[in-house]
Amino acid sequence: MNKTRLDGISAVVFDAYGTLFNLNAMSEIARPLADAKTDALLDLWRRKQLEYSWLRSLTGQHTDFLQITADSLDYACAALGLDNATLRARLLDAYRTPTAYEEVPEMLSRLRAAGLGRAILSNGSPAMLASGVAAAGLETLLDAVLSVSSVGIFKPHPAVYRLAVNHFHVAPEQIAFVSSNGWDVAGAAAFGFQVAWVNRAGLPAERLPSGPSAMLSDLTALPALLGV
User: Fold this and answer.
1) Where are the domains of the chain?
2) Which one-letter DSSP state was computed for residue 31?
3) Which CATH architecture does the domain made up of 25-96 adopt?
4) What contacts 10, CB < 8 A, 6 or more positions away?
């Protein structure tokens, strides 16, 4: 399903990393130090980051997302024989100081002008997210920054998505959830949100029971999707 309009929306909730925050700089940071192993490093790092978050959720061993990010980077570096403290430090710092995708400020401004609530809902820790929002220049454009730290479990657990419902005091179907991650889209849709998938890479749809109501190539068309 790819709707051209999401109706009855009161608030818009965004994933952070890869959705609002542009992580493409990771490749530019890593390539001078990792050379031909750069793509393999970034792919394995991301895969392990997700695996560790899900495994910690399943085993009840929650920790700060920055710790998971560091642990997964350390694994990827070890697996690829990359023992470089400078590489490690620069990549982790990039998570603390991301830039926003270029269309994000104007998009958020249009949602604010239309009176729609705007929040981040992320696996990131409060400190990581505060640093990221400041670095990306989005402090005045968001109503709230919600972290899984308050419930002690990572996405896609329903308790995480309920944070947005509790914050805005609306029904799930009155929230538009926006993410670039197919698994996050599936979890949010299963919870009851109206979900827009930002599919910048042109990936195939996940083979999961729940999926997006709409798909976007970037965030430029999101206001139109919401009728504002």
Assistant:
1) 11-22+98-225, 25-96
2) H
3) Orthogonal Bundle (1.10)
4) 116, 117, 168, 170, 174, 175
Cβ 124 vs Cβ 23: under 8 Å:
no
Strands (E), 148-199: 175-179, 194-198
Catalytic residue among 7, 15, 74, 218: 15
HEC-encoded secondary structure of 54-85: HHHHHHCCCCCHHHHHHHHHHHHHHHCCCCCH
Answer whether 186's CB lies under 8 Å from 211's CB. Answer: yes
Residue whose tokens read 């990039």? 94
Query: From the centroid of its chain, how far is CA 148?
Result: 12
Task: Report yes or no: 179 and 200 within 8 Å, Cβ to Cβ.
Answer: no
**Is 7 an active-site residue?**
no
100 in Cβ contact with 138 (< 8 Å): yes
- For residue 99, the SS3 value is strand
Question: pLDDT by residue (tens digit) across 11-69?
Answer: 999 999 999 999 988 999 999 999 999 999 999 999 999 999 999 999 999 999 999 99
Domain 11-22+98-225: CATH superfamily is HAD superfamily/HAD-like (3.40.50.1000)
> Which of 194, 212, 219 lies closest to 103, judged by CA?
219
Q: Which pTM was predicted?
A: 0.96
- Read off the pLDDT of residues 201-214 as tens digits, 9 standing for 90 and up: 999 999 999 999 99
Bridge partners (DSSP) of residue 175 are: 11
